[in-house]
Amino acid sequence: MRTFLLHTLTALVLIALWGTYSVISLKQGWHLSAIAPRHDTASFMAQATAKLQEEHKGNYAFLLMDQGKVHAEHYSAKGENINAKTLFGLSSLSKWVTAYGVMILVQRNELELDRPVSHYLTRWQLPESPYNNDGVTVRRLLSHTAGLTDGLGHNGFAPGTPIQPLTEHLSQALDADEGVSGRVEVGIEPGTAFKYSGGSYNLLQLIVEEVSGVSFQAFMAAEVFAPLGMNNTSYNVDNNHPALAAYHDGAGGHRTYPQYTSLAATGLYSNIEDLSKFLAAQVKLKDSKGALPLDRGALDLMMLPQAKTFGIDIWGAGPMLFAENGENGFIIGHGGKSPTLNTTARVNPDTGNGLIVLSTGNHFMAANLATQWTVWESGKPDIYLLKNQIPKMVKNVVVGAIVTALIVTVWGLRRRLIRVITKKLR
């Protein structure tokens, strides 16, 4: 009995060590290989453009930033001219820019991050819920931890059709994705869980209007775009705009850019030139631009972890936290996806390195390249790669546990057999 317990304990310790190693190695990226040597920016650029050229089915604009400055750009398209000034719909990448605007009001003490949002609302209020709606705060809206269960997702409205008013949209979005409620309401106790919510940013859009006294578009143009020099960034661009990239569907056809009520969540249009200025505004390097709308304290506040999944920090007060950057901070950014539109922007605030990919015609091309860049920049997987690798890790842990148990069992039986034979020989 004593021997059996010893063998069992040995097996459990070995299995625990194997499981711990598997989790740590996954999180730290010990077995990952980058597409280019670390710190070799020219090599990464070459590998990245080759991948984009091979995979793209429509158009793309790609920029790589090094130490806070533009290192290189690359553009390609089927049947059109794409350049640094070509406009793309950003989809959910809009949320990061919105968060920057919201933090301007926080910096001015016109908004408090942890005050109930009901304090700022006059035109609309959250419907009653089983939970305390006072737990819905600006900080939690920014980090998708306010407990809203709208499930948005916005399809937008076809050009030439009426755009739903914002307050009506908050009550019941007519352009909601199929299978979601489309109602901005509290369905989870605020502050207890992360749940991605486009409705959170629709509500922030209303709050910005209530507090500033002007339209959301006017506030963002005056307080964010103009100070950063984002001169070609705006909302709801007409499909006939001469600088607008064609919206390829990936099968040889074209789609039409919709019009949005949800400007803050998904309605922004911009280009590589303007977004590079936005990325530069996040950088901590001493020679980066001064006199920006947000001071360093407010920017650092946006980058503090606010939400976790699988025990891993994934979201700040606006930007996503893609991976630890080795400087007690994170690679930050955001992505966007509509049916065949995919955008991403990421930056390491401590090194000033970053990338932007704007594309149509592919579902995940921009996001996949951003994952490769994060591995190259930090040596660690981003949250998407971690999520995709978790099933494989669990399988490896289970297989390792079974193998360990078999080895310990065989070892124990072997020792027992040796003792029996030795006893008989005596």
Span from first to last CA?
24 Å
SSE string, helices as H and strands as E: HHEEEHHHHHEEEHEHHEEEEEEHH
Biggest sheet strand line-up:
2-1-13-12-11-10
Please write the CATH class name of the largest domain: Alpha Beta
The total number of structural domains is 2
Low-pLDDT runs of 5+ residues are none
Instruction: Estimate the strand proportion.
Output: 15-25%
CATH superfamily of the largest domain: DD-peptidase/beta-lactamase superfamily
Features:
13 strands; 6-stranded antiparallel sheet; Beta-lactamase; 3-stranded antiparallel sheet; globular; 12 helices; 426 residues; alpha+beta; single chain
What does this structure look like?
- The chain is of the alpha+beta class.
- It has two domains: 2-30 and 390-425; 41-380, 3-Layer(aba) Sandwich (Beta-lactamase).
- The protein is 40% helix and 15% strand.
- The protein has twelve helices and 13 strands.
- It has helices spanning 2-28, 41-55, 94-107, 138-142, 166-171, 198-212, 216-228, 263-266, 272-280, 296-302, 365-378, 383-425; strands at residues 59-66, 69-77, 88-89, 234-235, 247-248, 254-255, 268-270, 307-309, 312-315, 320-324, 330-338, 341-348, 353-360.
- Strands 2-1-13-12-11-10 form a six-stranded antiparallel sheet, with helices on both faces. A three-stranded antiparallel sheet has the order 3-7-4. A two-stranded antiparallel ribbon has the order 5-6.
- A hairpin with a 5-residue loop joins β5 (247-248) and β6 (254-255).
- The longest helix has 43 residues, at 383-425.
- The radius of gyration is 25 Å and the shape is globular.
- It starts with a helix and ends with a helix.
- The model has no long low-confidence stretch (mean pLDDT 89).
